[in-house]
Amino acid sequence: MKTEILKIDLHNIDSQKIKYAAQVIEEGGLVAFPTETVYGLGANALNKTAVEKIFKAKGRPSDNPLIVHVADKKSVGNLVLRIPEKAEKLMDAFWPGPLTLVMDKQSIVPDIITAGLDTVAIRVPSHPIALALIREAKLPIAAPSANISGKPSPTDSKHVINDLYGKVDVIIDGGFSNIGVESTVVDMVVDPPMLLRPGGITLEQLEDVIGNVRIDPGIAQKNLDGKVVPKSPGMKYKHYAPKAKVVIVEGEIQKVAEKINELVKECESRDIKVGILATDETKHFYPENLTVSLGSRLNPETIAANLFNAFRDYDKTDVQTIFAEAVDSSGIGLAIMNRMNKAAGYNIIKV
């Protein structure tokens, strides 16, 4: 397959390029495009054959549901049986933005989108290019992350090109995604609502709007054994993983640093190439040539924005094991630790 790359400036969107990409969607093709969270791989959500191409291009398991992206709140009514009152409040508070809501679906939504479930996950992205594409296509667009399934999600068009060039029709190069972790997913079918995947909207922000929100047990620990169909993307046991083995070290910062340095020496004695993921406040504890800072613990949004890119950079090296410091799990830290835990397969050392 020939893949076309369309470079579009999000501050000066080329309407002709958007029209072309929208036409590809309308005709059943695949378009990778930037969102504020990560890059998405889009197809007409109402075209089963087009959606099948997403699974083939990504190598994605069919039991992993997709998120449907729409242009505005009023578009949701065509896809769901009802919009719960609390869902309305969340839409008003956070859309457009990195929040996905799971609701009972109408029959118009193909089962392939929902992994056979009676619910569908929907969001309105805030990225100008994503919104322009959806509005021009005048269709709901199903779009998981634009990467090979299981690999770190793409936060830059280069990541998409590395994974999917020759497998999709169009890749829109819109620069970097600014949030760096996927959208928050909340199940609105249950009451109180349940957080299925932490992301760009924090648990604290959700509860400020609708009160109590339960947390799915799989966010903090592995709980899917392959027999349970996940209600949200990203709920599988191993996900977001670089080629290297990831080991998380959790505890008081000084003890974490001591443990990581001990583990590094042990690996080096066995000729295992290692890397260290630290923060601006802790990078001085480690050998400079082995260490990457993800950002500041005082500004965890920087850590979220850099995590997947750091994993991708390690994939270009011969590093075999990555030791990563845990961060505080409040706010967006819950999403950061969820992605780290999934990437590590819950390989966590507590000190």
Automatic annotation (TrEMBL):
Residues that, per the record, bind L-threonine: T37, H69, R123, A143, S183
UniProt KW keywords: ATP-binding, Cytoplasm, Nucleotide-binding, Nucleotidyltransferase, Transferase, tRNA processing
Subcellular localization: Cytoplasm
Residues engaged in binding ATP: R60, N64, T119, S145, S153, R197, Y240
Residues in YrdC-like domain copies: 15-201
Coiled coil feature spans: none
Keyword Chloroplast among record annotations: no
Reaction(s) catalysed by this chain's protein: L-threonine + hydrogencarbonate + ATP = L-threonylcarbamoyladenylate + diphosphate + H2O
EC number(s) stated in the UniProt entry for this protein: 2.7.7.87
Swiss-Prot/TrEMBL GO biological process terms: regulation of translational fidelity; tRNA processing
Primary location recorded for the protein, binned into one broad class: cytoplasm
Database matches in SUPFAM superfamilies: YrdC/RibB
Keyword hit for Nucleus: no
GO terms for cellular component: cytoplasm
Molecular function per GO: ATP binding; double-stranded RNA binding; L-threonylcarbamoyladenylate synthase; tRNA binding
Function: Required for the formation of a threonylcarbamoyl group on adenosine at position 37 (t(6)A37) in tRNAs that read codons beginning with adenine.
UniProt record similarity statement: Belongs to the SUA5 family.
The protein's name: Threonylcarbamoyl-AMP synthase
